[in-house]
Write a structure and sequence with these properties.
By secondary structure, the chain is mainly alpha-helical. It is 59% helix and 3% strand.
Length: 233
């Protein structure tokens, strides 16, 4: 069975499975320990996201929203950067970990409140995954690297953060942009061009090329707007 895109949606509800991804581990005891740590970290992240009370339908099944999102993120990483190391695999798998616990409504409903919420959210995600990595047996520098990426630190200068942003952008375009459009029929063309460009501008040139080369599924009704937005960049 091919290792690419092994996302077992049939088992998502229980979160009792291991995400199978390729590794180049050293042999022997270190190999076993590293694999065990990774497997435990994935299980802990999936268990945490499996608590999400919000459900989303995929392939005619209702799944915990953030659990589904995490596997879409990991799937996209395998397609875009199959040689990513385990720190980035875990960072990207945990990007939205337990997001429902930090509600937008807990902050003022204005631009300042929005930015406060986003900043708090990044810190919440980083600290949450860090605590799970400790339980999985990871230490020091590894955990700090994951925290920096999940916390969206130093975009454009931190390669890990940029990779996470690339994957998030590609996943948004393929899986969530159309649903977002359906929720906001009041948005005019200029508003949509601005939204698409904001997403696009956070992504690297490599992610742009990946998307434009047909490696992701674009939302068909929005293709003309996407083409118009990116052609002006």
């Amino acid at each position: 069975m091919p290792v690419s895109r092994l996302i077992f949606y049939d088992n998502l509800l229980s979160a009792q499975y291991t995400l199978h991804v390729p590794f180049n581990f050293p042999s022997g005891e270190e190999n076993s320990m590293t694999q065990q740590q990774f497997d435990m970290a994935i299980e802990l992240i999936d268990a945490a996201n499996g608590e999400d009370p919000n459900l989303e339908t995929s392939d005619n099944k209702e799944l915990p929203k953030e659990l589904l999102y995490s596997h879409r993120m990991s799937d996209m990483l395998q397609r875009f950067r199959p040689d990513a190391d385990d720190a980035m695999k875990l960072s990207i798998h945990a990007q939205h970990i337990q997001r429902w616990k930090s509600a937008r409504s807990d902050y003022p409903m204005n631009r300042k409140g929005y930015h406060q919420w986003r900043t708090g959210l990044y810190d919440f995600h980083a600290e949450t995954v860090a605590s799970l990595l400790v339980k999985a047996g990871y230490e020091g520098e590894f955990i700090e690297r994951v925290k920096q990426a999940v916390g969206k630190k130093s975009l454009k200068t931190n390669a890990d953060t940029q990779l996470l942003e690339d994957i998030a952008g590609l996943v948004f375009i393929e899986h969530y942009m159309q649903a977002f459009a359906d929720k906001h029929p009041e948005y005019d063309e200029q508003k949509w061009l601005d939204i698409i460009r904001r997403t696009w501008n956070k992504m690297s040139d490599q992610a742009h090329q990946f998307a434009l080369a047909g490696h992701i599924t674009l939302p068909a009704p929005l293709v003309p707007l996407i083409q118009k937005a990116v052609s002006a960049e």
